[in-house]
């Protein structure tokens, strides 16, 4: 294969991925006006259902326009030899390959962030604001941006620098050391994310003593779930949308409830949601997902090690000097079809796990309370009740509301 043919293969992959994603969105949009199934007839009042359709359409049109613009900018960057220009600039600053790589990715990330910021701003302050979801101020939006950039520079830059250094000193064997590094980091994030990362953006407070906490503790004892920490996070600082999640394992496990969840649901419904989260832990979904994620990372890094030293990867992007950072860009695009397949498999597994967690909540607590909570959350989030089956199969990590209700009542 010549550099020129590889260049056009990269372009083809980018366009095909875009077209498939857009086709799914178009198919999904055609189902917005579908009749609501009888099991979901009590989710939306008529005027609220019309509002949910308008919300879906607004997001669909915006995504179609923004993703098309992003595609055009990306293709323009490719055809104008943007990667070669950034690489030359980085090399004019330093002769150290690791420093060159960090400067290169730093410029790419900053450029990408500058282009994506107006998109995120419009999404939050126009669409989310229009439909009553947004609670974020402009100040919070930009402070979050700054915090994210600093974290990416420190954490992402540190990991990337170590991986490039491993490559410099070990050659093709770098993937083993990189895999060990990423695995340790992934485990640490799973254990300490709620303690280290969440407080940077949100305030977490222990659930106050009272009837809700007593009921939760009573349920935890009943199912043999040692729960040391129940926290409430100030999700209302940014949005009216509600959520709950389980994090960590071993002595570091904790359940976090959004303050909006406590506001929207009654005591029985909140405990039912918590029972679902406990189900994930009891069924060892957290550990399985962690192992699967680490395994996929190892496979990806191994594939990367087979190709990264090939100068064709750099030459395809019109960069004359072969380098790890340019090869990583080319490999990432070439690997994207495989990533789509592994992502699809992960979603299939995730949906199965959601059914299992629902079943656990049904058997240990109350299925109707869980159903009521799911209906309320769907209504408050203006969720799509009639998605296209192809969209569900490819992109949904959770079964649809209708599928979950049918399974719970089976």
From TrEMBL:
Keyword set, alphabetical order: Endoplasmic reticulum, Hydrolase, Membrane, Metal-binding, Metalloprotease, Protease, Transmembrane, Transmembrane helix, Zinc
Q: Which species is this record about?
A: Aquimarina mytili
Query: Is Transferase among this UniProt entry's keywords?
Result: no
The similarity comment for this entry is: Belongs to the peptidase M48 family.
Q: Active site located where? A: 277, 358 (proton donor)
Which Gene3D superfamilies does UniProt cross-reference here? Metalloproteases ('zincins'), catalytic domain
Give the UniProt record's GO annotations in the biological process aspect: CAAX-box protein processing
Which Pfam families does the annotation name? Peptidase_M48, Peptidase_M48_N
How are cofactors bound according to the entry's free-text note? Binds 1 zinc ion per subunit.
Residue stretches making up the CAAX prenyl protease 1 N-terminal domain: 29-203
**Chain ranges of the Peptidase M48 domain:** 207-410
Entry membrane topology: Multi-pass membrane protein
> What is the official name of this protein in its record?
M48 family metallopeptidase
Q: What InterPro entries would the database entry show? A: CAXX_Prtase_1, Peptidase_M48, Peptidase_M48_N
Q: Where is the major localization of this protein?
A: endoplasmic reticulum
Q: Which cofactor does it need?
A: Zn(2+)
Give compartment(s).
Endoplasmic reticulum membrane
- Molecular function as annotated in GO: metal ion binding; metalloendopeptidase activity
TM region(s), chain numbering: 6-24, 64-86, 98-125, 146-167, 173-193, 286-308, 328-349
Binding-site positions, Zn(2+): 276, 280, 354
Q: Which domain of life is it from?
A: Bacteria
